[in-house]
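Fold Annotation — chain and its backbone
Next Lines — sequence and tokenised fold

***
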Amino acid sequence: MSVAGHHAVTALIEVAVGGSAARHTHPGEEIGYVIEGTYEFGINGEPSRTLKAGDGFQIPAETPHAGGKPGDAKSRILITYVVEKGKPLASPA
């Protein structure tokens, strides 16, 4: 990894209708791409927005954010985290 003291973690997240992620932070950047469905999320200090399949996003390190799945079908999101080694992937905010 070109960022000293960090590693990358990639995950495919499936979110059921009505599912949500509580407000949290990551010890590094989060880079995501919506593969299927829609996903609504708010990044600290910005209005909430809804992403649809084909949309990408980036969340800076240690930035509080939360999300949810409105609508009538599940969503799938591909996420890569570039985070500090030895720290938890996510922490409540």
Notes: The mean pLDDT is 93. The beta strands are 6-15, 20-25, 28-36, 38-43, 49-52, 56-59, 65-68, 75-84, 91-92.
